Amino acid sequence: MQINVKGWKTVQTTARFTVKSNGRMVSIRCNQQSNSGDVGTEYTLGTLISGYRPQYTITVPLESIAGGGGNYGYIRCYANGGIKLKISRSTYSSSGGLTLYGTVEFGI
Q1: Rounded Cα distance, 100 and 24, in Å
Q2: For 62, which of 14, 40, 100, 108 could close a Cys bridge (C-beta 3.0–4.6 Å)?
Q3: What's residue 98's pLDDT?
Q4: Which residues span the domain enclosing 7?
Q5: Are the C-beta atoms of residues 87 and 30 closer than 8 Å to each other?
Q6: Rg, C-alpha atoms of the chain
Q7: Cβ atoms of residues 98 and 73 within 8 Å
Q8: What is the model's pLDDT at position 35?
Q9: For position 53, which CATH number holds?
Q10: Which segments of the chain have a pLDDT < 70?
């Protein structure tokens, strides 16, 4: 499985993305550690190669182990292959930040 990574800005954040395929399904997992309070920050992560793109745009919420819920933003995979990460709520905490996670899965 390949992903073409575009340049994207980093604002005191680190992100780990795992892209897997078993020939029938594609899984894109995001694990974003943030301590900067990135409110309303959108990252263009890259583009999936042809053949591994979803038929429709898929959006999954970002959740936090510490904060619970899925209202911290989302990871989105577009039908054209583009992948974006949106952080829509402050992730700052007194302990140094929250770890956000989300997984997009679709059939190929």
Answers
A1: 27
A2: 100
A3: 79
A4: 3-107
A5: no
A6: 14
A7: no
A8: 67
A9: 2.60.40
A10: 1-15, 35-37, 67-69, 93-96
Torsion of CA 65, 72, 103, 14, to 10 degrees: -80
Number of domains forming the structure of the chain: 1
Q: How far apart are CA 44 and CA 50, in angstroms?
A: 18
Cβ(73)–Cβ(59) under 8 Å? no
Residues 104 and 60: beta-carbon distance below 8 Å: yes
pLDDT at 100: 85
Dist. CA 76–CA 70, nearest whole Å: 14
Amino acid residing at 7: G
Minimal CA–CA distance to 21: which of 63, 74, 77? 77
Q: Phi/psi of residue 41, each to 5°?
A: -100, 130
User: How far apart are alpha carbons 69 and 85 in whole angstroms?
Assistant: 17
